[in-house]
Amino acid sequence: MYIIVGGGGDVGYYLTRNLLSRGHEVLLLEKSSNRVQTLGEELGQSVIKGDACEARIMEEAGAQRADVVIAVTGEDEDNLVICQMAKKRFNVTRTIARLNNPKHEELFQKLGIDVTISPTKAILSLIESELPGPHFIPLMTLKKAGLEIVALNVPPLSPVSGKKLSQVHLPRKSTLAMIMRGNEPLFPTADTELQENDEVYALLSSEGEEELRKVFGNS
């Protein structure tokens, strides 16, 4: 698989190194001469000087034959330009963009970026999951299916505590995939009884989020 990575910061460097170790053909584009020299000491010909926002550079990099283009610069605007150019001008099948500001996620999705990765959002979710009290955390969005994976807990006095799943009215287009009870993973059936402090992982449509919160008492 041929992968072009735009942005030679720490994320771009570690990503390129990892992809190369897995046997992929990877080209890292970085516009800073000093940074290219530093990266070249380890990555060799897999890193070249060039701004991935420029069509000429992307053409020279062989974007027309790339399977994936990944934009991981420190600027969301640049990442959007890189991915849009890859899609519209070079017909790249898969584009992945780093999001520095989670507020831009909806815009990126509307403009056709296949996958967005937000380190800030991921860190906030991890922190929230460690805080006491009820929580409802989106973990992953499956854009093409219109679904997402969420984690939520069963708080004290939850209306579902002590009930079997067959007695719980879940939203349409939702399913409970796994329950963590302490350190033990449980794969639920209709007879599984929910308990306080259970950590529940669910797959559901975005429209069902609010309803699921109410069902579990997380609203």
TrEMBL record:
<dbReference type="Pfam" id="PF02254">
    <property type="entry name" value="TrkA_N"/>
</dbReference>
<keyword id="KW-0813">Transport</keyword>
<dbReference type="InterPro" id="IPR006037">
    <property type="entry name" value="RCK_C"/>
</dbReference>
<keyword id="KW-0633">Potassium transport</keyword>
<feature type="domain" description="RCK C-terminal">
    <location>
        <begin position="137"/>
        <end position="218"/>
    </location>
</feature>
<feature type="domain" description="RCK N-terminal">
    <location>
        <begin position="1"/>
        <end position="119"/>
    </location>
</feature>
<protein>
    <recommendedName>
        <fullName>Trk system potassium uptake protein TrkA</fullName>
    </recommendedName>
</protein>
<dbReference type="InterPro" id="IPR006036">
    <property type="entry name" value="K_uptake_TrkA"/>
</dbReference>
<keyword id="KW-0406">Ion transport</keyword>
<dbReference type="GO" id="GO:0015079">
    <property type="term" value="F:potassium ion transmembrane transporter activity"/>
</dbReference>
<keyword id="KW-0630">Potassium</keyword>
<dbReference type="InterPro" id="IPR003148">
    <property type="entry name" value="RCK_N"/>
</dbReference>
<dbReference type="InterPro" id="IPR036291">
    <property type="entry name" value="NAD(P)-bd_dom_sf"/>
</dbReference>
<keyword id="KW-0520">NAD</keyword>
<dbReference type="GO" id="GO:0005886">
    <property type="term" value="C:plasma membrane"/>
</dbReference>
<dbReference type="Pfam" id="PF02080">
    <property type="entry name" value="TrkA_C"/>
</dbReference>
<dbReference type="InterPro" id="IPR050721">
    <property type="entry name" value="Trk_Ktr_HKT_K-transport"/>
</dbReference>
<dbReference type="InterPro" id="IPR036721">
    <property type="entry name" value="RCK_C_sf"/>
</dbReference>
